[in-house]
Amino acid sequence: MVNDRVMSEHRAVRKHAAQHDLFNRLHSIAADEEFVRRVGSAWYNNRFEVRCGNWYCDPTSSSNAYAYFKSTDGHMFHWDFNLRRSNLSLASYAEAKGGLILVDSTRRGKRMPDGLSKTVPIWCAVINIAISLRHDVPQNWDTNIYLSPQIVPPTERSQIETRLQAWAESLERSSLPLPRLTKPLRPFFIHPSTSLPPFIPETPSYIPIICLSASRWVNEGRDEIPSVTNIGQRKVGFEYVPGGGDDDELWARGLEPLLFHQHKKYLLSVERDDLPALVDRLVKSADLAAGINTSLVNCDLSSSELTGVPSPNSLMALDIGPPSMKASWSLSPSEVLRIVPVEKYPKNIPFLLAVHPSERVLAVPSAKTGGKSYAIALRELVDYVKTVSIEQSKPIVLSLGKAADFQKAIAVGDNTQAIDPAAIKITSPSSLADARKIILPLALVILCALPKISEYSTRSSPIEGSLSKDLVTNKLHGLVALWPDGNPPRVALKRVNEFLMGEARRDD
Fold first, then answer.
1. Cis status of the peptide bond prior to 310, with omega within 30 of 0
2. 252-276, pLDDT tens digit by residue?
3. DSSP assignment string, 368-380
């Protein structure tokens, strides 16, 4: 018995090591990528754009359209059409491109990830039904849900079908910009054991959404599992890892998809024992070349056009990069508010600081670690916007600030107290998406606390409706539809709701 236990533990250690081995991972990814490329080119003659998980397509050639289909929205008994992950801009994009191939992978135990086998079909059907509720559509407009019978059993299909109408009605009632598609969306399913591609005519009566699972199903035994690769003139074995691109923080040694694809031929040609050192050299070289750029100064969100939220005639606009769908602003800014995230900030100093009469800087603490300070910053934000935009009818723009903006605010003489720069620590968003996640909660607070900002008017108008969690959610969905990658973190939304519900109680 002891020997059996020792052998079992030894096998578990070897399995874990093989699953996280760099050589196994990269050659598994290469095998999956080859299958994806074969489907797109040989089966569909490159008719459709490919939207991939980062590792399975060259980022320089695959579509960068935003898509986020969460597998948990397709898990048994947890099926959902989540309005915060509506992917509505992707539907319009798919129609413009004549269809899309969505690529994902899964680990052992499943033919396809739930995100492809159920979340995407639910998305297609709900949008089709919602469009039929809002617009006049042809009599043959397809509102059925299409699920693979080999993957989704009839009982599960039936339970999903009973929920579609309610999800569609919720979408149709929301403030989200429902696309005016001319054809319904329809999913198709492909995986490595698919022998013949689904037939899609040259001019289909639907928008094809091809759900492509890149990884082989190891446990089933029917898939041909890659196990040999060429290193120079020799054939070398490797252990195939399904979903090889997952959990790259555990095995990739800092290697990222773009760097992998730039040096793929070289990386796949070296011996197993030489691969870690090569990856380390490539990562170090790339870091030096890029300067590991995480500075606010270089995190430039600005676009040539400002976006009025929630509409073009709002008194507020955001300057946080182009939205995912067409939007504009019909006004010109009179006030500019630059948002600067801070990790450390003096307690006796206002978060809102003047740069000059028409420009302010707002220091925003972390919603996670500085909850009380975050609420104070929100209070100063609302009071300021109420004064300039509601009482004085001045259009305002929210944009990402830079360290230089904050330093300028410290230097001017009209701030009430001297500020020690050493007492302040400015944080740097690591990506444009992270910067948007900081600014969108602030815009949400303004839209909910000051509803009259939504439409420019020189005369006061009554506030429509009362502040509620449903109203906050509806406003949030509208913002996230414009910048899907700016979907705020849960803790920031919790702080926003706490602040707004406190405002509602104060007004009662």
1. yes
2. 999 999 999 999 999 999 999 999 9
3. TT-HHHHHHHHHH
Calculated CA dihedral for residues 60, 54, 108, 17, nearest 10 degrees? 100
Place of tokens 């990790």: 343
Non-local (6+) Cβ contacts of 200 within 8 A are 44, 99, 188, 208, 210
Which alpha helices (H) appear in 135-212, and where do they start and end? 154-173
**How many residues make up the chain in this entry?**
508
- The domains found in the chain, sorted by start residue, are 13-213 (no CATH), 301-507 (3.90.190.10)
- Closest alpha carbon to 370 in 438, 315, 324: 438
Q: Which helix (H) or strand (E) holds 51?
A: strand 49-51
Q: Are 40 and 50 in contact (CB under 8 A)?
A: yes
Residue 480 CB neighbours (<10 A):
23
Q: What sign has the CA pseudo-torsion 127, 128, 134, 135?
A: positive
Distance CA 332, CA 483 (A): 22
Q: CA 110, CA 215: separation in Å to the nearest integer?
A: 10
- The identity of residue 412, as a single letter, is V
Q: 85, 174, 82, 185: which is closest to 134 by C-alpha?
A: 174
Phi, psi of 339 (to 5 degrees): -95, 125
- What are the DSSP E strand ranges found in 301-409? 307-308, 316-319, 335-344, 352-356, 359-364, 396-400
Decide if 362 contacts 337 (C-beta within 8 A): yes
Residue in the structure block whose two tokens are 């420019």: 456
Chain centroid to CA 381: how far?
27
- Residues 127 and 169: beta-carbon distance below 8 Å: no
Paired with 237 in beta bridges are 228
The H or E element that residue 426 is part of is: strand 425-426
Alpha helices in 333-457 (DSSP H): 371-385, 403-411, 432-449
SS3 for 261-294 is HHCHHHHCCCCHHHHHHHHHHHHHHHHHHHCCCC
User: 102: part of which helix (H) or strand (E)?
Assistant: strand 100-104
Residue 432 and residue 416: Cα distance in Å, rounded? 33
Judged by average pLDDT, the poorest of 41-55, 167-181, 184-198 is 41-55
pTM of the model: 0.81
Q: Which of 16-20, 55-59, 267-271 has the lowest mean pLDDT?
A: 16-20
Confirm if 18 and 251 have CB atoms less than 8 A apart: no
Token pair in block for residue 298: 């270089």
Residues sharing a CB contact under 8 Å with residue 101, sequence separation 6 or more, in sequence order? 36, 39, 40, 44, 48, 49, 50, 51, 210, 212
- Paired residues of 335 in beta bridges: 396
